[in-house]
Amino acid sequence: MADIETTLIEERSFDPNEAFAKDANLSPGEYTELISAADQDYENFWADLARKELQWTTDFEHTLEWSPPFSKWFVGGKLNMSVQCLDQHLKSWRRNKAAIIWEGEPGDQVTLTYAQLHAEVCKFSNAMESLGIQAGDRVALYMPMIPELAIAVLACARIGAPHSVIFGGFAPKAIRDRVEDAQCKLIITADGGWRRGEVLALKANVDEALDSGCPSVEHVVVVERTENPVRWREDRDIWWHELVDQQSTRHDPKAFDSEHPLFILYTSGTTGLPKGVVHATAGYALWTKLTSKWVFDLKDEDTYWCTADIGWITGHSYIIYGPLQNGATTMMYEGAPNYPAEDRYWDICERHGVSIFYTAPTAIRAFMKWGDAHPMSHDLSSIRLLGTVGEPINPEAWMWYRTVIGKDRCPIVDTWWQTETGGMMIAPIPGVTTTVPGSATAPLPGIDAAVVDADGMEVENGKGGFLVIRKPWPSMLRNVWGDPERFQSTYYGKYEGVYFAGDGARRDEKGNFWIMGRIDDVINVSGHRLGTMEIESALVSHPNICEAAVVARPDDLKGQAIVAFVTLISGDADSKMKEELQTHVANEIGAIAKPAEIRFTDALPKTRSGKIMRRLLTDIAAGREVGDTTTLEDASILRRLKSDDDE
Ligand code: PRX
After folding, report:
1. Are residues 574 and 457 in the same domain?
2. What's the distance, Cα to Cα, between the start and end of the chain in Å?
3. Which of 21, 80, 130, 564 is deepest in the core (most CB within 10 A)?
4. Residue 309 Cβ contacting ligand 1 at under 6 Å
5. Does residue 205 sit within a domain?
6. Shortest-distance Cα residue to atom 5 of ligand 1
7. Are residue 196 and residue 66 in the same domain, yes or no?
């Protein structure tokens, strides 16, 4: 069996393209040197890179303080993240280079050079300071993908106010939970954003969140984007354009400590409440810069496009911070991939001459479904590198991406990482690594990833286990906002001093890593991470629901789909109720969390100690043979659930 697998893998592996490798940012020799430098003297390896890559106002005294789970990197150093991204380029020819090329869904366009972006960021920094925002104050951003979002992020970094970007698809309650957890003083939003020709009423959602809580919020700054009517509170709400109008385009940036919190980003975990993942300035700056350079092979001539939303970590690290630190041109697009037609992305690639394209496997599977004619009708010859992120990519989708989009010429980088890791951890280096469809290949230099068993022992190649990172790394999360115990128990509670990623993985005979998906109660729908508990809490908050259990089943397009098993207290188990519950979840969390399937049951399968046996529900949802049922308290429930399945 192992032999067959090895042959298959060998047949489908791709060596680096010679033409690409010739000019790549990292050669095989340089790569080997980096790997051995990290092996020989881990701290010095990072210290050298940090001194070379970052603009320090004050040099750091020592590289690492490690007291698991807490780490401090580049201790004593001072710098400013917006200077890394902007001011440093103003001294060079890049001053007048496009920093951001933005396209709105209706087709409007804005290009901001580094000098212009710097001026806008300075204005908004002054504007926030005029509202009393100081270093350390938290600012929530609930915005569409418009240039003001990037400007606000960079301005927060400039004044040292940690931003908490809340994805625009989240519902008012999710906004409230996040704003209250971080005690944000300011919210920046827009009247609306465009999505498939419709206006998403963002300000209305903020109003609703604030109506029911969030006493810490003093002001709401509103960008005028869609001109839809908005409710207005004179004592609290301010138009962005009125606020920035009189502000100076100069702003003296303060240098902040290496460990100063740069941002908080909420992500789903295994409880009902999302975790506020905290990232610190210097380590995150270093790793997002380096990984962009190494893995995307970013060059000055590139027009780079990451299709993620800035509401997720991919947008933070690889639309804004990584590319801008490298002085690259980064694209931003506001809307849907299929508006006005299914070729919108390829149209953008052709018109703007996109050379590096980074997207999620779920999008690739949608492109496959929509048909080759869409990409084929565009000249995609400017593209030279393709990337994927967010979920395991099936080899078929990988091959389609390579052939139809990459014309068998472009390297594909499948990048494994997480909100918590800040930057890529396991990914190919395009001029160096032999890629294999479906595998993220190998850990990057300085990253000590391994697959281990329940006792923390490394498993042999070919065997499955838990993915861990054995050494700390500069862009690792520093804490869970306000909950250090949760930080310790979630990530460092299983193995002493070793980061537990929550993913299953195996390595093949060549040592390549294959990520097998989450092993906890986290679901990955279209590359978006959701906690089963969050959805269950939303369901049981409905007056007709007594109990709910949420599991995932495989889905060809979205990777995973949400299946909810619910028990009613009252009301009819009919399709009207199903719809009502789906809408309820969308209203509580956001449309991304809407269950694809709702199944009514008079009871849930439980162990004798009362724990819901999700494993069995997962089998039923997937239509699989149900596994071990020996601990099940009432076997008749299973028969009833299954017979429901047969209907
Ligand atoms: O399960 C892994 C999956 O996405 C999870 C992290 O989700 P999030 O924090 O939202 O960040 C997504 C973008 C970095 C991981 O635990 N994942 C991410 N990238 C890959 C992946 N699974 C397989 N292959 C990948 N390349």
Report:
1. no
2. 38
3. 564
4. no
5. yes
6. 418
7. yes
Q: Choose one of 167, 318, 389 to mutate for the ligand 1 pocket test, by most ligand atoms within 8 angstroms of C-beta.
A: 389
Distance 389 CA to ligand 1 centre (A): 7
Number of domains in the chain: 3
Give the mean pLDDT of 570-599: 95
Instruction: Count Cβ atoms below 10 Å from residue 319 Cβ, excluding itself.
Output: 28
Domain with 472 in it: what CATH number? 2.30.38.10
Same domain, 484 and 562: no
pLDDT at res. 10: 47
Cβ neighbourhood burial of 83 (10 Å; 0-12, 13-18, 19+): buried
User: Which residue has the CA at smallest separation from atom 7 of ligand 1?
Assistant: 418
Collapsed DSSP state (helix, strand, coil) of residue 385? strand
Residue 161 lies in a domain: yes
Closest CA to ligand 1's atom 24? 392
498 with 606, same domain? no
Q: Do 465 and 537 belong to one domain?
A: no
Distance 416 CA to ligand 1 centre (A): 6
- CATH number for the domain spanning 331: value is 3.40.50.12780
Q: What is the 517 CA–ligand 1 centroid distance (Å)?
A: 8
The domain spanning residue 577 has which CATH number?
Answer: 3.30.300.30
Residue type, 77: G
pLDDT for position 645: 53
Ligand 1 contact via 306 beta carbon (within 6 Å): no
241 Cα: distance to centroid of ligand 1 (angstroms): 37
In Å, what is the CA distance from 392 to each residue of 11, 363, 416, 457, 526?
A: 20, 12, 8, 24, 11
Average pLDDT value over all residues in the chain = 94
Locate the ligand 1 atom nearest the alpha carbon of residue 522 and give its number: 1
262 pLDDT band (50/70/90 cuts)?
very high
Residue 187 lies in a domain: yes
Domain closes at, from 308, 336, 364: 336
- What's the average model confidence in pLDDT over 551-564? 94
Residue to substitute in 388, 391, 398, 441 for testing ligand 1 pocket (most ligand atoms within 8 angstroms of CB): 391
Taking the centre of ligand 1 as the mean of its atom positions, its distance from the CA of residue 518, in whole angstroms, is 9
Q: What pLDDT score does 2 carry?
A: 39
Q: What is the pLDDT of residue 635?
A: 75
Flag whether pLDDT at 410 surpasses 70. yes
Give pLDDT tens digits for 137-160.
Answer: 999 999 999 999 999 999 999 999
For residue 312, give the ligand 1 atom closest to its CA: 10
Same domain flag for 528 and 507: no
Q: Is 181 in the pocket of ligand 1 (CB under 6 A)?
A: no
Q: Which domain holds residue 71?
A: 41-336
Query: 253 C-alpha to center of ligand 1: Å?
Result: 34
Give mean pLDDT, residues 484-494. Answer: 96
Residue ranges of E strands in 372-448: 385-389, 412-415
Helix (H) / strand (E) containing 217 = none
Other CB atoms within a 10 A radius of the CB of residue 122 amount to 25
At residue 647, does pLDDT exceed 50?
no
Q: Give the CA count within 13 Å in the CB-facing half-sphere of 21.
A: 16
What DSSP character marks residue 487? H
The response to whether residue 362 sits with its C-beta less than 6 Å from ligand 1 reads: no
501 and 560 in a single domain? The answer is no
Q: In this predicted model, what pLDDT tens digit does every residue of 223-250 receive, in sequence order? A: 999 999 999 999 999 999 999 999 999 9
Do the beta carbons of residue 181 and residue 604 sit within 8 Å?
no
- Ramachandran class of 139: left when φ > 0, alpha when ψ lies in -120 to 50, beta otherwise: beta
Q: Is the same domain home to 476 and 569?
A: no
Q: Is residue 17 part of a domain?
A: no
Of 336, 365, 387, the one marking the end of a domain is 336
Best residue for ligand 1 mutational test, from 413, 418, 466 (most atoms within 8 Å of Cβ): 418
351-407 pLDDT tens trace: 999 999 999 999 999 999 999 999 999 999 999 999 999 999 999 999 999 999 999
